[in-house]
Amino acid sequence: MPAEIRELKKPNRVWSYFRLEKWPLIAVTVSGILYNAGMTAGPWFEGKLAQRLYDVIGGSKTFRDMLTLAVYYVAVILFVQSMRYIKRFYVRRFANNVNRNMKHVLYNNLVHKSKPDFEKESVGNMMIRAISDVDTCVEGMRKFTTEVFDTGVVMLAYTVMLFSYDWRLALLSCIFPPFAYLIAEKLKKVVTHSAAAYKESAGKLSSATLERVSGTLTYRVFSQEPERNTAYEKLLADYEKRAVKANIWETTMQPLYQIISMTSVLFVIWFGAKNVQGTGWTAWDIAAFTTFLSCFAKLAVKSSKAAKLFNAVQKAQVSWTRIKPLLEETGEEAEAVAAEPAQLSVSDLSFAYPDGKEIYSGLSFDAEPGEVIGVTGPVAGGKSTLGRTFLCEYPYGGSIRYGGRELSKLTDAERSGIIGYMGHQPELISGSIEENILLGCSEDAKIYLDAVCMGQELAEMPEGIHTRIGSGGARLSGGQQARVAIARTLCSRRPVMILDDPFSAVDRATERKIMENLSRLTKNSIVIIISHRLYMFPEFDQVFWVENGTVKVSRHDKLMRDQSEYAQLYRTQTEGGGHYEA
Length: 582
Description:
The chain is α/β, with parallel strands linked by helices. Helix content is 63%, strand content 10%.
């Protein structure tokens, strides 16, 4: 886990992410104050230049005087803009870091969620949370961070400047901008509701898209494509409607905010002209009038953007509300538990799916680190279900205790630090072989590829370990997919490792070599191998025979005497000497 995430004490609080990025924010603060305070130099120089031009035309000043003032103006503006560059650079760095850290925590917690938790809401909604909601939330944080200076500080500077020229006219000028803020606040419920509806619709559309892709063949075979297309079109139309409604409040309100804020320009022109004529509240020259007008125009623009900022923050609040429940843990407990090998004690274990009959019952055994356990039995007898029971996806009966702690009582993060699982269908990502094995770790993937006897095949691939395997490992053979999955499991080895049918697509000699390497690399782990292939079972410390809802715990030699079906299956495989397919 990255050091930055370890320092994130409360990932479900926005302030934690600001604290984690304190140095970029310090740079933003210093450069932001210098930039936005320096913005007042623009109107001041513009007024002076207008006055200087008037004086040059009148003959009281020369062109050289005008040029000197212009040079100073350019120098100051260059300095101010350099501060702007620094501020924008560190604001973007802050946003990128927060986006990365927030997604890291979110993804880490998603992979630790149990299967029932995932079934409570759609995969599409999870995707929207993991990608769109984080992006929206971080964008709101970025806008807030930058606008504190680009709007807050500069508005304060402009306001002070206006009051220094004519406090009465400054008060008149400030009448209308607050109305823009008031409207933005009144629209808060509308913006929040439309943003939430848009996110919900996007989640439904994502789920429907995934279902449509995965079920294309089924729909075609059973002539359901027209019905599914109609349903999909309805979801798409609802998404478009919600998207337009959500965006319209943010985009179309900006001109209205600006018009309201600029209304006071009528006061500035009328009373400012009187000041220049000497009949107003304060005696002005052309420079003062130009500076005041320029300051007000910039203040009005900033006021309208502040109102828009309120809407952006409101959208971010919607996204934060959606992702906050998924940012509760950082998974640090998993690392602490995984470091300590301990005894596994199972007592009277049973399992039944919530809506089905009991799969098995009465399983009791103890295992020490270094032991290898084989699990076999007839097809569809419950072997894979037994292995998945240790993942605690659903409640089980009886007890599973590791190091004296009940597995079901641990957090998802703690449990994932104890149990390593490889299913009988390898789930590979569409990256390179190395990426599939390391999954972000910094180890040497070749060690684990050699352990699963892929060294020679790897050498024959044009890009070697960096070969991209395609979606689901499509560019690899079945045996290669299985061995990459075993290598990944070894790289992320845990105190208890469950391998479901790992050797079904390799020959007998390769199976023995892999098993020898596996035993060497997992000498401090308890390994449970679920398989129909029994070549290696005589060397295992324990063997489970799963049949008709019962699990018989024994050793190979005893099962050969007491369990005729097991003995027949073993002799068929070993005496035939061929490759047995599960």
